[in-house]
Amino acid sequence: MRNCSIQVRGLLTREELDRYNALLEVGHYLESQNRYDLSYIVQKEIDILILPAIERLKEKSRQRDRDTEEYLRRKELELLDEDDE
């Protein structure tokens, strides 16, 4: 079973995290029983479950980029104002 990243896990809701942990445990058990055909299905469910958290992570990144762009724009304006004085 593949784990998702710590960043993604950190953005799972409590309900999503509980379900993620339960599915992971089931998947590990299936793998220990050499039932890879079934563990594959569980892995696909995990992949679907974490999609909202991945989107939240992407949105945080986009917001950080917007904040950085705004900060740089303000700094540039401050420098221009200082040059005018």
Give a verbal description of the structure.
The chain is mainly α and 85 residues long. It has one domain (6-84). Helix content is 85%, strand content 0%. The chain has four helices and no strands. It has helices spanning 6-10, 14-32, 36-49, 51-84. Helix 2 (14-32) runs antiparallel to helix 3. The termini are far apart. The model has no long low-confidence stretch (mean pLDDT 94).
Counting DSSP E segments of at least 2 residues, the number of strands comes to 0
Mean pLDDT value? 94
Kindly give the count of domains: 1
Uncertain stretches of 5 or more adjacent residues: none
The computed structural class is: mainly alpha
Radius of gyration in whole Å, from Cα? 22 Å
- This entry's quaternary arrangement is single chain
Q: How much helicity do the residues have?
A: over 70%
> Cα distance, first to last residue?
63 Å
Q: What string gives the helices and strands in order?
A: HHHH
Which range does the strand content fall in?
A: under 5%
Q: Note the main sheet.
A: none
| Dominant shape | rod-shaped
Number of DSSP helical runs: 4
Tell me the layout of helices and strands.
Layout: H1 6-10, H2 14-32, H3 36-49, H4 51-84
Helix pairs in contact: 2-3
Task: Offer a few descriptive terms.
85 residues; mainly alpha; 4 helices
Produce a short descriptive summary.
The chain has helices at 6-10, 14-32, 36-49, 51-84. The chain has 85 residues and is mostly helical.
